[in-house]
Amino acid sequence: MELGLVGLGKMGGNMRERIRRAGHTVVGYDRNPALADVHSLEELVGKLQGPRVVWVMVPAGEATQATIDELAGLLEPGDVVVDGGNSRWTDDEKHARELAAKGIGFVDCGVSGGVWGLQNGYALMYGGEAVHVDLVRPVFDALKPEGDFGSVHAGRVGAGHFAKMVHNGIEYAMMQAYAEGWELLEKADSVTDVREVFRSWQEGTVIRSWLLDLAVNALDEDEHLEQLKGYAQDSGEGRWTVEAAIDHAVPLPAITASLFARFSSRQEDSPQMKMIAALRNQFGGHAVTKKP
């Protein structure tokens, strides 16, 4: 089939290649002309035969909204737009309404796989009406990993990005657990080879996972992670997961704590810890460390 793909960065560029390897035609557009097959969205749409499918892989928020707005003026009834970025599920509902008013279908798709997706395939979680999903299915089949798993029609519009959001929330908590275990092992004098302890967990243990494999890769590159600064950004999906948990009255203590741990990483001199130190000194006479 033919596909228009908007956004050819780390993910989009590899997705284009994987889809082409499966025998499909991909016309790609990116603001960077060195990456693009065409010079504009108008040219991209003009090169596709109806019913057209255009997959958007640009940053969530204003960039996605602007792209969908422009496509709404270029596409025709019966065409379908897929948002494969990390949009919030509530935005999906808005985009679907706007496009439906012009007879254009909409599918939201959460995509996981990162820079390894070209080689291993991408896990796909998508939401939308069955008629629109079926039009995109050859692309889903090209992108997904080999085998029976890795692709799911999660439900109505918004379900794909909601599922991906929860996936990322779980990912936050898993990474935090590995990080805490690694730090504790590093602090123990009796443990002389933390990297090999992590490597030993890769087979036969209940905590083995791809994240563990990636942790071992990182330790092979920098055994004690001495080249890194203890700062971790968050993509926003961890925040949305916690907000959704509040809305649904679902307790998420592990995921919430892992999100807050990201925030603490950005404080070189934590104001909260100043108060904790002051209180410990006041009630127990515990020593405090003062600035020079």
From TrEMBL:
Top enzyme category: oxidoreductase
Gene3D superfamilies documented for this protein: N-(1-d-carboxylethyl)-l-norvaline Dehydrogenase, domain 2, NAD(P)-binding Rossmann-like Domain
Gene Ontology MF annotations: oxidoreductase activity
EC number: 1.1.1.343
Keywords: Gluconate utilization, Oxidoreductase
Span of domain 6-phosphogluconate dehydrogenase C-terminal: 160-287
Keyword flag Oxidoreductase: yes
Matches recorded under Pfam families: 6PGD, NAD_binding_2
InterPro entries on file: 6-PGluconate_DH-like_C_sf, 6DGDH_YqeC, 6PGD_dom2, 6PGDH_C, 6PGDH_NADP-bd, NAD(P)-bd_dom_sf, Pgluconate_DH
Protein family: Belongs to the 6-phosphogluconate dehydrogenase family.
PANTHER family linked to this entry: 6-PHOSPHOGLUCONATE DEHYDROGENASE
Protein name, UniProt field: Phosphogluconate dehydrogenase (NAD(+)-dependent, decarboxylating)
Phylogenetic classification of the source organism: Bacteria, Bacillati, Actinomycetota, Actinomycetes, Kitasatosporales
